[in-house]
Amino acid sequence: MSYYTYILFSEQLDRYYIGSSQDVERRLKKHLASNKGFTARAKDWVIKYTEKFQSKNEALQRENQIKKWKSRAMIEKLIDA
């Protein structure tokens, strides 16, 4: 089974969100339907980037690595690569 690290973008908030999931499309629908949490602040999230992994642990490690960057420029460089 594959796992993914993903990056969402909201134009309304002009912000990125980094997460991981087995099913990115299903997870996006949950983000859009949610009424709580960070992603509930906007309803225009779109998938900008996905990266595939063989294990949940690998996807979580990559998610945490990207979050630790705390750099919009590095996130945008990754998306544009």
**What is the helix/strand order?**
EEHEHH
- The fraction of residues in strands falls at 25-35%
- By secondary-structure content and strand pairing, the structural class works out as alpha+beta
Largest sheet: 3 strands, antiparallel
Q: Overall pLDDT, averaged? A: 97
Helix content: 40-55%
Overall outline:
globular
Rg is 12 Å
**Sheet with the most strands: spatial strand order:** 2-1-3
Termini Cα gap: 25 Å
- Show unreliable segments: none
How many individual helices?
3
Compute the number of strand runs. Answer: 3
List keywords for this structure.
single chain; 81 residues; alpha+beta; three-stranded antiparallel beta sheet; 3 strands
Give the structure's gist in a few sentences.
The chain is of the alpha+beta class. The termini are far apart.
Please describe what this structure looks like.
The protein has 81 residues and is α+β, with helices and mostly antiparallel strands. 41% of the residues lie in helices and 28% in strands. The protein is globular, with a radius of gyration of 12 Å.
What's the topology here?
Layout: E1 3-10, E2 15-21, H1 24-33, E3 46-53, H2 56-69, H3 72-80
Antiparallel strand pairs: 1-2, 1-3
